[in-house]
Structure formats: structure tokens, C-alpha cells
Automatic annotation (TrEMBL):
Topology term for the membrane: Multi-pass membrane protein
Name used for this protein in its record: Protoheme IX farnesyltransferase
GO cellular component: plasma membrane
Lineage, top ranks: unclassified sequences, metagenomes, ecological metagenomes
Keywords: Cell membrane, Heme biosynthesis, Membrane, Transferase, Transmembrane, Transmembrane helix
Pfam families, sorted: UbiA
Species of origin: freshwater metagenome
Transmembrane segments: 29-48, 54-75, 101-119, 125-143, 150-169, 175-196, 224-241, 247-266, 278-299
GO biological process, one term: heme biosynthetic process
Length: 303
């Protein structure tokens, strides 16, 4: 399963080594990734999948995402110490060392691949590993520090869980999960840029070219509106492609309209609190959208 490029707000600083290893995995990000996995598995099955397969896929996805996030922390420890939001991370405080963190991360990735290959299928394991490699090499090592397109392109890694979930059930990749991949790919920039508006000074201090740190708020919001609009369109494309009904379609329209209104309103009232409200709603949005998809499938096509 793919890691996300998402970074959340300040969290409790770990004080024990166990807490430090848990913090390396960025568990709050993993929660968001898993929200998209189970609904996609339900769609792939046309009902509720085998519960053991769901648990295996979630376990493999959690391990893969956790390992990728840990590698990200190892690579970014130099800039993490420059940003107040990330100065409590275990590699910055010295709670853990980079070598042991990397060994931990690689072990998680190996275990993730083995779990998915042994108890799901090889395709889901390969997709999860490819997402990790993309996140580490394309986003973390290349784009994050060099391009304002970092989260746009790198965010593709965070859209892969839908492909992993579908592949775990069907052992293939079809149009429905591809459209869901596009939805999550387009969702990532407005979601992340809303948070980055709040922490733009942090990114400037670390010389990381996140869009809100190097462009005006007007330019940032304009691009947020563009990506949000395209995302809403893609959720509507999902309606016929996924053979879904009104239980999905009506929430998709209503939730998308609220998301779009929120980004437009941010442009007319450009403040950090409003940006954080858009960020918070973006999480609610994806949660409710995938919940509606799940209910639609289960009600109309019970397994």
C-alpha cells in the first residue's frame, strides 16, 4: 500500500523507544490510507470480501506505508529539525538513530511484501512495493526539495491503496480502481496545500518549495480550485464506471460541491484558520465519499 504525502499537525512527542518506532510510521497518515482500501475491496467483490483477506490487506498496507514513512523520516531528518511542526520527531530529538530507523523501515517493507504475496497475491504486493519506491525516490529524494509540483506528482503514491485493495480481491487492475486512483491523485494537492498554507513559514525555513511557501495565496488557491474541480468531475465519472447508484451519486455531488465551495471561499477569505478548515473537511470528504461507495455496493449488490 502506498504512503501518503500528507503531513498532519503537531502531535504528542514520543518519549519511549517503542513510541518512537510507532511515530516513525506516521500512524495518522496510515489511517487515512486505509479508509480508501476497504471500500475498494468491497467494490471489487461486489459485496463484503472475505474478512481474513480484508485483515491481511490492511496489515500488509499498514506495514508498507509505515516502512515508507519511516524511510521518509530518515531522509528528511535534516529539514525536520528546521521546522517547528516536525521538531518532535524521534530522529530529530535523538530518541532513535537513523541506522536503526532504516533497518526498522526495511524490515517493515519486507514483511509487508511477504504478507501480501503469501496471503493475498503477488500483484497486490508488487503494487504496494512500487508505491513505496515511488514515494521514497520520486517524492522524497527528488521532487520534495526541488519542485513546486512535489506533492502533485509525489501524491500519486498515496493514491495506490485503491489499486492494492482491488488487486487483493480480483488479482487484476480494472477501470473502476483506476478512476478511484485518479480521484485520490487529484484530491491530494488541495488537501495538502490547505495544510501547507498554515505551515508555509516552516517550509520556507527548511527551503522546501511547497507551493504556498513560494507562491502567493491567490495562486495557491486558484490551483486548489482547479484540482478540486477535476476531482469532483472524476468522482462523477466513477458513478457509471463503478455501476453505482444514487446512494453514492447524491453524496458525491453534495460533498464535492461543499469541497469546491470551501476552496473558493478560501480565496475570498485567505486566512490560516480557513485553510485548516478546508484541510479538515478534505479528510471528512474522502471518508464520507468512500463510505457512500461502500454502502451503495452493500445495499444494491449484497454479497
Amino acid at each position: 500500500m502506498a504512503p501518503g504525502g500528507v503531513a498532519h499537525g503537531t502531535r504528542r512527542i514520543p518519549t519511549s523507544r517503542i513510541g518512537g518506532f510507532v511515530a516513525l510510521t506516521k500512524p495518522r497518515i496510515i489511517e487515512l490510507l486505509l479508509i480508501t482500501t476497504v471500500p475498494t475491496m468491497v467494490m471489487a467483490q461486489g459485496g463484503w470480501p472475505r474478512t481474513s483477506l480484508v485483515l491481511i490487506t490492511l496489515l500488509g498496507g499498514t506495514l508498507a506505508a509505515g516502512g515508507a514513512n519511516a524511510i521518509n523520516m530518515v531522509v528528511d531528518r535534516d529539514i525536520d529539525k528546521l521546522m517547528p511542526r516536525t521538531q518532535g520527531r524521534p530522529l530529530v530529538t535523538g530518541l532513535l538513530g537513523p541506522r536503526e530507523a532504516m533497518v526498522f523501515a526495511i524490515a517493515l517493507e519486507v514483511l509487508a511484501f511477504a504478507v501480501l504475496w503469501a496471503w493475498a497475491n503477488l500483484l497486490s504486493a508488487i503494487l504496494a512495493l512500487s508505491a513505496t519506491l515511488f514515494y521514497v525516490f520520486v517524492y522524497t529524494l527528488w521532487l520534495k526539495r526541488t519542485s513546486t509540483q512535489n506533492i502533485v506528482i509525489g501524491g500519486a503514491a498515496g493514491a495506490v491503496p485503491v489499486l492494492v485493495g482491488w488487486a487483493a480481491v480480483q488479482n487484476n487492475v480494472a477501470w473502476a480502481p483506476v478512476v478511484l486512483f485518479v480521484v485520490m491523485f487529484l484530491w491530494t494537492p488541495p488537501h495538502f496545500w490547505a495544510l501547507a498554507i498554515r505551515y508555509a513559514d516552516d517550509y520556507r525555513a527548511a527551503d522546501v518549495p511547497m507551493l504556498p511557501a513560494v507562491a502567493s495565496l491567490q495562486v495557491t488557491v486558484r490551483k486548489m480550485v482547479l484540482y478540486t474541480s477535476l476531482m469532483v468531475v472524476s468522482t462523477l465519472v466513477m458513478w457509471p464506471v463503478g455501476h453505482l447508484g444514487l446512494i453514492y451519486g447524491i453524496p458525491a455531488i453534495a460533498l464535492g460541491a461543499l469541497f469546491l465551495w470551501g476552496t473558493i471561499d478560501l480565496g475570498t477569505n485567505p486566512t490560516a484558520p480557513r485553510a485548516m478548515r478546508v484541510f479538515g473537511y478534505s479528510i471528512t470528504y474522502v471518508t464520507l465519499l468512500f463510505a457512500a461507495l461502500t454502502v451503495d455496493v452493500l445495499v444494491r449488490r449484497p454479497g
